[in-house]
Structures are given as C-alpha cells and as structure tokens.
Amino acid sequence: MRDMEALERVSRWPVETVAVSVLGRGDGDEGPAGGSAVRELGQTGPAQRPFRLASVSKLLAAYAVLIAVEEGAFGLDDEVGPGPATVAQLLAHASGLPFEGEGPRAAPGARRIYSNAGFDRLGEVLTGATGIAFADYLAESVFRPLGMDGAQLVGPPSHGVTATLADLRLFAAELLAPALLSPATFAAATTVAFPGLAGVLPGFGRQNPNDWGLGFEIRGHKTPHWTGTANSPETFGHFGQAGTFLWVDPVVGLACVTLCDRDFGEWARQLWPPLSDDVLASARPQAVNPSP
Fold first, then answer.
1. Which residues lie within the region annotated Disordered (predicted)?
2. Does the global pTM surpass 0.90?
C-alpha cells in the first residue's frame, strides 16, 4: 500500500503514536450492493493498535440509536426526557441538557448545548426499550455487521468506545456508502437538525449557527474548526478529546480517520486543519483496496 503524500507530515506531529486512513468513494465503481465502491487511498501508522475514541464514540452510538429507530424500538419524535426532550433533540445536542449532569439548562430546541449527558440518556432509553444492554446492542447492530472486531464499548455511550484504525476505516466506509441505515434516515442524520441554533463547539468557541445533525457534527461555515478550510460545508463527523477525529466530505466522496495517543489541545487545533486540507488536495481517483 502506498502512503499519500499528505500523510507524511503526521510523522512530525508531537505525539508518540498516530494512525491515519483516507478513504474515497470511487466514481463509476460499483460495490457488492450496486452502490459506489469505497477504497483506501492511503494509510499510515498501526492498523491494529486500540485507541480511545473519546467523543468519536458518539458517531457509533448515534448509529445504534438510529438503527433502533428503524427497528421500531422508539421514534425520533418520542419524548424520552428529561422533560419534553425527544430522541432527535438528544442526538442533536438540542435537548437543553448540560455537558454533564441531569438538570436542563435550557428548554428543548432553544440552544445547541453539547451534552455527554444527552447521549448517556439515549443509552438508557435504548436499553429500556429493547431490554438489551447498550454495549451489546451497539456490538450487535454496528460492530459485528461491519466487521469491527477490535471495537468495544468500555464506558458510557458518549465517550466510552475503544477501537483500532482498521475498525474505524470500516465505519468510515459505511458512512461513504451506507448499508446499515435507510437513505432517508442517513440523510436526516448527516444534515442540519433544528437549524439556526447557536452554541459552543468544544475547543473552538461559540458558533452561530452551531450546526449539528443527528449525532454528526455538520461543518457548515464554522470558524475556527477542526476540519480544513477546503472541506465543504456538507462535511460531517466528530472529533474526540483523546486526539481522534473522523470526517466525511460527501461532496468529494472522501473520508479521513485519525487516531493518536495525545489528548486534544492547541497542537491539534494547529495541525488537524492543514492535514485535512492536504488530504483534500492530494487525493487521487486511483486507489488501493483496503487491507483486511
């Protein structure tokens, strides 16, 4: 496998271990279900080393919740609390719940308040509705179907997943060519929910609007931001305090997964956007198949 030129700079990052994978959706190539084939354009770092995902876990948790919605366990508009907050509002950080804790800080739908508590509440709701522990449901509905053999939930749904680069590139491939969710549900998850809400993007300050989908942060026109200046406004994904991120730019059909062993900080604010811009600039239509 060749490394993209854009990935050479990560060897100079101030971290002990970093692993990156870039994937692309091929034009004209059909996958096994008739959709676009996804190929790995470049990779660097260990593929099988487990990393803490921190808040990138929310993408996986949201996928499990959305699968439960499609299976009829509950609806996006069901009021599951606290108060009248709905499943959709909890997914979109529009429930009014604080970052941590139980007491609402705002009425549902009034502000975008980034909330671990909201995602952990969703874990309770799913377990109550299905009778299946959230960790088991996540494994059965997302990890096993995608072949994410090294992924596991070892903490709360909001930030408790550990996984390898090999695992996360399988999930990124799913996001480029969805098979586990219907097109309508996937579109709802990756476009702005409750438009116009302002709020604080952790690590990057107040954004107005602070666009979010159903579990997926939407890049929009936020500045500053952890993705690149060349990423389209339609880019969706998440970053984590553990020094991790995953974005998908559907306009160009690219995804980038980055995992490392240094917590997010000023170093990441400085180095992540240039990496994303380099990836977008150097990606080529020719690709290599991802290794298992």
1. 23-42
2. yes
Distance CA 107, CA 97 (A): 9
Give the CATH H-level superfamily of domain 5-282.
DD-peptidase/beta-lactamase superfamily (3.40.710.10)
Name the nearest CA neighbour of 26 among 5, 14, 13, 40.
40
Number of C-beta neighbours around residue 99 at 10 A: 15
pLDDT of residue 103: 85
Q: Provide the residue type at 36 as one letter.
A: S
Whether 259 and 161 have beta carbons less than 8 Å apart is answered as: no
Domain boundaries of the chain, sorted by first residue: 5-282
Among 204, 209, 196, 192, which residue's Cα sits nearest to residue 264?
204
Dist. CA 104–CA 97, nearest whole Å: 4
Comparing C-alpha atoms, which of 173, 238, 176 is closest to residue 204? 238
pLDDT at 292: 33
Low-confidence ranges of the chain (pLDDT < 50): 1-2, 28-35, 285-292
- Contact between residue 135 and residue 120 where contact means Cβ atoms under 8 Å apart: no
The pLDDT of residue 202: 95
Q: Which value, to the nearest 10 degrees, does the dihedral of the CA atoms of residues 268, 266, 236, 110 take?
A: 160
pLDDT at residue 8, rounded to an integer: 87
